[in-house]
Design goal:
Blueprint (H helix, E strand, L loop, with lengths): L12 H13 L5 H9 L20 E4 L2 E3 L2 H12 L4 E7 L5 H7 L2 E8 L2 H12 L6 E5 L12 E6 L8 H5 L1 E12 L3 E9 L2 E10 L10
Helix pairs in contact: 1-2
Length: 218
């Protein structure tokens, strides 16, 4: 990672552990996910001016009209995606700053992540290069379409809100797989779709607030 962080004060390991304890108090009980998040320097995924707020339970701007999700949402969505098991081949829609991608990379056998904004993807590609992941592939692509050339996926996680569940993503979900995404426009809800023998089974969960999923490339 870059040389900016000092590991003291608001970006110290102690601050990170306070974030983990807060997540437990908020109801996150997946210790596997919490362990990964306790190790990752989240402040290195935001601009230097915002580093002191990186562990607050808020989303923060990352440029290009995008945000890094609040820690609770990252933990909640990752826990839902894992559903208590191991992650195999995962597709992430919305690479953003790469924090969620890195959490997934620590948990999954294989991670594909697509981002529609080219300059944002370039910046994140440089950032993630320092982790030396060999099982993470980033691609400049329209998230509505998923990544059909690499499908099927055991799990799909979308970090932008769509008005409906894209049929293209359901078609790329393996039998027994799970898709986690925010759904809605004015009012959004977290949504889990399990691909069962009887087809996709959808469960709507708590209200959330995400940037909208946009079509096309930027």
């Amino acid at each position: 990672m870059n040389k900016t962080p000092t590991g003291i004060g608001m970006t110290s390991p102690r601050t990170r552990l306070r974030m983990i304890e807060r997540l437990r108090q908020q109801g996150i009980n997946d210790e596997v996910v919490l362990s990964v998040m306790s190790e990752l320097p989240r402040h290195q995924f935001v601009e230097e001016a915002l580093m002191s707020r990186a562990y607050d339970d808020v989303s923060l701007p990352i440029g290009f009209g995008q945000t890094i999700s609040q820690p609770y949402i990252v933990a909640r969505m990752t826990s839902l995606l894992r559903n208590g098991g191991k992650l195999g081949k995962v597709l992430e829609i919305g690479t953003g700053c790469g924090y969620q991608t890195t959490v997934l990379a620590k948990l999954a056998r294989e991670v594909y992540s697509v981002e529609r904004i080219a300059p944002l993807l370039d910046r994140t590609r440089t950032r993630l290069r320092e982790f030396r992941f060999t099982h993470v592939r980033l691609k400049h692509a329209d998230g509505h379409l998923g990544l059909p050339e690499a499908a099927p996926f055991d799990a799909i996680l979308m970090t932008a809100a769509a008005s409906h569940v894209p049929a293209e993503l359901l078609a790329q979900l393996a039998p027994g797989g799970r898709l986690v995404m925010p759904v809605g426009v004015a009012e959004q809800r977290l949504c889990c779709i399990d691909m069962t023998d009887n087809g996709p089974q959808q469960t709507l969960l708590e209200p959330v607030k995400f940037v909208p999923l946009l079509a096309g490339l930027g």
